[in-house]
Design goal:
This protein is α+β, with helices and mostly antiparallel strands and 439 residues long. It has 15 helices and 16 strands. The chain folds into 3 domains: 228 residues, Bira Bifunctional Protein, Domain 2 (BirA Bifunctional Protein, domain 2, 2-Layer Sandwich), CATH 3.30.930.10; 59 residues, no CATH class; 93 residues, Rossmann fold (3-Layer(aba) Sandwich). The radius of gyration is 28 Å and the shape is elongated. The two termini are 43 Å apart. It binds one RNA strand of 76 nucleotides through helix 3, strand 6, strand 10, strand 11 and helix 11.
RNA sequence: GCGGUAGUGGCGAAGUGGUUAACGCAUCGGAUUGUGGCUCCGACACUCGUGGGUUCAAUUCCCAUCUAUCGCCCCA
């Protein structure tokens, strides 16, 4: 049997309504914040990711899906979304468009060659947003609010926002020197990984889980202590705005994030949900004021975030979030071959009118037809056999009320439409958490 | 890349070195030749992830491999 590739999975019909619900929520919130969708290729020149994400990050050094094409070019399946978006903004000169601040979002598959586990796959999906052209902390605050709103719109309440600032290039450089100086006599007390990080990516030592409790790290200098005046101001303003927007956050002085390109604000949103295990970070983001310039674009600042959609869905599972209920309006029950012509005509009429219609294609028993109608969650079942054909009528049963009526065949569509217009006693799309009718 | 656990019908899940591989759910047929959801009866795995080895005999033991899962690393 052919099997799927390691770390990939199929989104089956039973799951897709949940995906659609999440995607719809994302698009709706994006509209509210006035972000426009951008769709970039899922592969790019390998060099793009090396230059943007950072040569020494794990993502680039050991997790990319690389391949050579027939023209001997080096390609990489995108491991994250920002690089491609930045490339596109530069290449299409979106920074020169009549809208001075470009606010973009994307959604789609990403690829990392990793050992799969729950909530982590080789082909996974991200939803992310990027805003270009402003260094205002108001935009940082908007980003964080945007991310939180997506979670709120999905009714996820148990979330924590952590923020920190790395400052501008000057701050980052000052801090790095201070950290290296501080750690130098203590390197041998750090874990093995951190001894490597000391040389390659010292900032990441800060949020090492092994050394977390150690005195060395607790007393280590933090990025916030080395902010330049402007950087400090930026961060102070962000905090003020978040307070005014009534967005709960905690300042995590050890938060540094894994990608090289961040400056100033960095943030993470965690779900406090046991089912996520080690993968509780739903969203990570921050400001990257130098990346556009580093990739040969103009010197314009930017800020963004990315969500892992699989993790979002996992978190939703724990709050028992369901996608939209699947249903059809009509299940046409055809009894006897001689009735199929008329039935085909009636089905077509209803579908042209926009009704969701299905029927039994296996000539199974009436019992089975009812069972099929039930599993399709049909509101109405229409029964058409020899007797009805004779009388030019059709029996139609409302599965919700159990009431069955006999009507003229040419009244079928109108009958269903009329019934659907009547207010339902059921509370189907209730938005109110405290509604007594919802169970 | 490293370490632990697991792999039996569509799903869940027993089981054993020896020849009919329990059971539950789902599905299908019938009782009820045109009104389902309850009940009863019946059907449903040339086969126990894949490949190889040990053995007279392997689903069971051994090795490899694949996949899943948990943790590490890292990240979303």
């Amino acid at each position: 049997m052919q099997r799927k590739m390691k770390g990939t999975y199929d989104i089956l019909p039973s799951e897709s309504s949940r995906w659609q619900a999440v995607e719809r929520a994302i698009r709706r919130v994006s509209k509210i914040y006035n972000y426009k969708e951008i769709r970039t290729p899922i592969f790019e020149q390998s060099e793009l990711f090396h230059r943007s994400v950072g040569e020494d990050t794990d993502i680039v050094s050991k997790e990319t899906y690389d391949f050579k094409d027939r023209g001997d070019r080096d390609n990489t399946l995108r491991p994250e979304g920002t690089a491609g978006v930045v490339r596109s903004v530069i290449e299409n000169k979106l920074y020169a468009a009549d809208i001075p601040v470009q606010k973009l979002y994307y959604m789609g598959p990403m690829f990392r060659y990793e050992r799969p586990q729950k909530g982590r796959y080789r082909q996974f999906h991200q939803f992310g947003a990027e805003a270009f052209g402003s260094n205002s902390p108001l935009l940082d605050a908007e980003m964080i609010s945007y991310a939180v709103s997506v979670l709120k719109s999905l009714k996820l309440k148990e979330v924590t926002v952590k923020i920190n600032s790395l400052g501008d290039s000057q701050s980052k450089e000052d801090y790095k020197i201070a950290l290296l100086n501080y750690l130098e006599p203590n390197v041998k007390h750090l874990c093995k990984d951190c001894q490597t990080r000391y040389k390659t990516n010292p900032l990441r030592i800060l949020d090492c889980k092994v050394d977390k409790g150690s005195l060395v790290l607790k007393e280590a200098p933090k990025p916030l202590d080395y902010l330049t005046k402007e950087s400090q101001e930026h961060f102070d303003n962000l905090v003020k705005y978040l307070d005014q927007m009534d967005i709960a956050y905690t300042i995590d002085k050890a938060l540094v994030r894994g990608l090289d390109y961040y400056t100033h604000t960095v943030f993470e949103v965690d779900a406090n949900v046991s089912s996520l295990g080690a993968q509780k970070t739903l969203c990570g983001g921050g400001r990257y004021n130098n990346l556009v310039n580093d990739l040969d674009g103009p010197d314009i600042p930017a800020v963004g975030f990315a969500f892992g959609i699989e993790r979002l869905l996992l978190a939703l599972e724990s709050i028992d979030y369901k996608g939209d209920a699947e249903y059809i309006h009509l299940f046409m029950m055809i009894l006897g071959d001689d009735q199929k012509e008329d039935a085909a005509k009636m089905i077509q009429r209803c579908r042209l009118g926009g009704l969701y219609v299905d029927t039994d294609f296996l000539d199974r028993s009436m019992k089975s037809k009812f069972n099929q109608a039930e599993s399709h969650n049909a509101r109405f079942v229409a029964i058409y056999g020899a007797n009805e054909k004779e009388a030019n009528t059709i029996n139609i049963k409302d599965q919700e009320s159990g009431i069955q009526e006999t009507i003229e065949t040419d009244q079928l569509y109108t009958y269903i439409m009329t019934k659907l217009m009547e207010p339902s006693s059921k509370c189907e799309t209730c938005e109110d958490d405290d509604c007594d009718d919802c169970s």
